[in-house]
Design brief:
single chain, 9 helices, 22 strands, TIM Barrel
Length: 454
């Protein structure tokens, strides 16, 4: 007879072997290691693997200590230069000779930004060792990795940095291709290279349970054709068909492929997520930023996103640099966005509060809120299907008075300080039409209250 201890060990091994997936009871959220999960990140600018000077172990440990559970990184088919988009100390802009990609370097000079050209018929074993060590470290810390395979080429200048450009490889691939036609079916040799590197990446990462695959960042039709996107998704599905694990495919695109499980906005709004809940997929806000250096816009965007039914929120945090992999290149951050330890604490508070509820059985809905004052406030809520748990989030005011409609019984209402993570006050209210008045929260401009039937 198998001992209970051995059964426990076997169950843990089995659970951890299953990649993050959509929750079977509610596909708007995730299941990871047997737990209902939302993903909250405040991520470096996606160069953790491709930039050899970036200490990803320090970075990932800092992310975990901050209480966050997601990071986003890119493969190296695309990279940037310093000050691209006004980003200083950009992790996507390695120093000359410090860029590593899936493809091996050749013996032929000269790559656009230092070192030899690439051989697109050979993969770099050192790159895949680095990628796997990154994933292993993240996995040990329960951090989910959003792995971007491709990124839209925003300019000819950026296309000239890609190994796929004919000036940077010895294979006569990507010659006479303009930056705005890279991701089409026009060039068959380039297309073949893209399919091969996709298959290689998918195969190499298949054993990890803490990764999902994003096809391409910000495709913005028509620069990236729908036919190209569907072909790469087909390539991923085919590559995994004979492999043990099947991973979530994320799509940041207007044309939704049935094989994708996560639909990702950038700079999303509550209306965006509410408008896509009918897809019965997880809805993510995979990148925010460019709203100044203060914490307020990114904290409130995150709260509004999850209160509207979102499953993933990742802030673009420029306090992470190669010189500061502990996220202390602040404060304020020098660049177009914010970030830093205080924001990460606030986003961790958001994650912990949502996950303290039975959110798998909750959905956006404010019908139990009969009225509120001031009417100019932004008020959203998640409501449990059994009407016994509610999360209300309030923004754009300093106090709020709510009139509710609750079933018979007694309820506990905890007012959460979104800045510190402290509970400001706990009220006891009864069913019927109780009135709930908040503490003053003028210092933050927003507040959350969690209501549970007792």
């Amino acid at each position: 007879m198998i001992s209970s201890f051995l059964l426990l060990i076997l169950s843990v091994v089995f659970v951890h072997a299953v990649p993050i997936s959509l929750h079977p009871d509610n596909p708007h959220y995730f299941l990871y290691h047997g737990k209902p999960t939302i993903l909250v990140g405040s991520t470096e600018h996606y160069g953790a693997v491709l930039n050899l000077d970036f200490d990803y172990k320090t970075y990932l440990n800092t992310v975990a200590k901050a209480g966050l559970d997601e990071t986003r990184t890119w493969s190296g088919t695309y990279r940037e230069m310093n000050n691209t988009f006004g980003i200083l100390n950009n992790t996507m802009a390695p120093a000359p000779g410090r860029f590593i990609s899936p493809w091996a370097r050749s013996s032929q000079c000269c790559y656009k930004d230092g070192g030899n050209k690439f051989d697109l018929t050979q993969f770099d074993n050192n790159y895949f060792a680095r990628l796997k060590d990154f994933l292993t470290t993240a996995q040990s810390l329960d951090i989910i990795v959003n792995f971007g395979i491709f990124c839209r080429m925003y300019s000819e200048e950026l296309w000239e940095l890609s190994p796929m450009n004919g000036i940077n490889n010895i294979n006569n691939v990507g010659v006479n291709v303009n930056f705005d036609s890279v991701y089409t079916l026009n060039d068959t040799s380039l297309l073949s290279i893209m399919q091969e590197v996709t298959t290689k990446i998918v195969t190499e990462v298949n054993g990890f349970d803490n990764i999902y695959l994003e096809v391409i960042n910000e495709p913005n039709m028509p620069q990236v054709s729908a036919d190209w996107t569907n072909l790469i998704i087909t390539t991923i599905v085919k590559a995994e068909s004979n492999l043990p694990q099947k991973h979530i495919i994320a799509q940041n695109s207007f044309n939704i492929n049935p094989a994708t499980s996560l639909y990702s906005f950038h700079y999303g709004t509550p209306g965006d997520v509410l408008g896509k809940l009918g897809l019965n997929k997880a809805i993510g806000d995979g990148e925010t930023g460019f709203a100044g250096s203060s914490d307020y816009p990114y904290r409130t965007q995150g709260w509004q996103w999850f209160i509207s039914g979102g499953a993933e929120y990742d802030n673009l945090d420029y306090s992470w640099t190669a010189a500061h992999p502990d996220g202390t290149a602040c404060c304020p951050v020098v660049g177009p966005s914010g970030g830093g330890p205080s924001l990460r604490l606030q986003l961790s508070t958001l994650r912990k509060f949502i996950e303290s509820f039975d959110f798998i059985h909750m959905a956006p809905g404010t019908t139990f809120i009969k009225s509120y004052t001031p009417s100019s406030a932004w008020v959203g809520a998640l409501t449990h299907t059994d009407q016994n748990q509610f999360i209300i989030y309030v923004n754009r005011t300093s106090t709020i008075s709510l009139t509710l409609q609750l079933n018979t019984g007694s309820y506990s209402a905890e007012w959460l300080d979104t800045l510190s993570g402290n509970i400001l006050r706990t009220d006891t209210i009864n069913g019927g039409n109780p009135q709930l008045t908040s503490p003053n929260f003028s210092a933050s401009g927003d507040i959350a209250v969690g209501i549970r039937k007792t």
